[in-house]
Specification:
By secondary structure, this protein is an alpha+beta fold. Helix content is about 35%, strand content about 15%. It has a single domain (about 5-135), classed as Winged helix-like DNA-binding domain superfamily/Winged helix DNA-binding domain (Arc Repressor Mutant, subunit A, Orthogonal Bundle). Keywords: DNA-binding.
Length: about 170
C-alpha cells in the first residue's frame, strides 16, 4: 500500500466526504478485499458497500487488483490507492470543513507553535496516526447515537506564500 498522499481532484475529494467511504478505504489498505468481505468487516449491508465501492472505483481512489471465479460468481478484489489524500487550492478536501459551513455542532481548536522542519514532520505524522486510530475505533457499524463529523487538521506557516515574480 502506498503511504504517500494521493493528489485528488475536486470530484475525487467529494467522494471522500462520506464516513462510510473512509471506513471502506481503511479496510482496503493492507490487503485486497471484495465488497462482501468489507461489508462483513464493517457490519454493513453488502448492497450499500458495493454501491460505495463502485463510486470509489469509478473515482480512481481504489483499484481492482484481482478477479477470481468462485462457483458461478466472479469475485472482484479491490485495494486502496492510498490512505491519505491531498487537494489543491483554497478548497478543503471535505466541503464541511469550509469556513462558511454552518454546523449544528462544531469545535475549532488552534494554537501557534515554533517548529523546526523535523518537528513539523513529526507533528504531521502524529496527527496522521491519531486520525488513523480513530478510523479504526469507529470502523464497526455502531450507529446508535452516532453522528457523522468531519475532522481536519491544517498546519500553516504564518508566513504568506509569495506571488510569482516577488
Amino acid at each position: 500500500m502506498n503511504n504517500k498522499p494521493l493528489n485528488v481532484s475536486v470530484e475525487q475529494a467529494k467522494l471522500l466526504g462520506n464516513a462510510l467511504r473512509i471506513k471502506i478505504i481503511s479496510k482496503l489498505l493492507d490487503e485486497p478485499r471484495t465488497a462482501k468481505q468489507v461489508a462483513d468487516l464493517l457490519g454493513e449491508s453488502g448492497g450499500n458497500v458495493h454501491y460505495h465501492m463502485k463510486k470509489l472505483y469509478e473515482g480512481d481512489l481504489i483499484e481492482l487488483v484481482e478477479e477470481k471465479q468462485f462457483g458461478g460468481v466472479m469475485e472482484k478484489y479491490y485495494k486502496s490507492k492510498s490512505k491519505w489524500f491531498n487537494s489543491f487550492g483554497a478548497e478543503p478536501i471535505d466541503p464541511v470543513l469550509k469556513d462558511d459551513f454552518i454546523s449544528n455542532d462544531s469545535t475549532a481548536l488552534s494554537i501557534r507553535l515554533n517548529l523546526t522542519r523535523d518537528q513539523q514532520d513529526q507533528i504531521k505524522e502524529e496527527f496522521r496516526l491519531f486520525l488513523e486510530d480513530w478510523v479504526k475505533k469507529t470502523s464497526v457499524n455502531e450507529t446508535v447515537g452516532a453522528q457523522e463529523y468531519s475532522i481536519g487538521v491544517k498546519i500553516n506557516s504564518t508566513i504568506p506564500k509569495m506571488e510569482e515574480g516577488e
